[in-house]
Amino acid sequence: MCGMKTLVTSVALILGLQAPMAVALGVQDQLRVFANCAGRLSAVMEYQWMVDGPQSEQTETQRDQMLDLVAAIMPVDQGRQVLSWRVTAKSAQWTLLSRATFNDDPGDAAWARRMADRYAGECTALLLNS
Question: Given 36, 39, 74, 126, which is the most exposed site by the fewest CB atoms within 10 A?
Fold first, then answer.
């Protein structure tokens, strides 16, 4: 297990080659980014269960990769904080997806879709195999 944690930590550091934002951040900020992304990707996956089942499998894999990154750098005493970040980000993403899908105002729905896609895209861009 320790070897896997080292590997995942190394991958988290390598992410900077693909996503400069991740390198510019300290470990605590990286933890928050990864936790937020895990929450956002959870919301996307659950949304896809309703509208695009097969796509949810890829999103689930990406979410699991984010969770591995969280686990690799999370201090033992930060579990509650990380869970709070994940839940908040998941709720925000779900709100955007719902607004994009069920809104009667086409302009607002389009804005919500762009924002939901943007946030999810920023998360998947952090992964090496996205």
Answer: 74
Chain segment 44-79, per-residue pLDDT in tens: 999 999 988 788 999 999 999 999 999 999 999 999
Nearest CA-CA partner of 120 in 52, 42, 50: 42
110 half-sphere exposure, CB direction, 13 A CA radius: 3
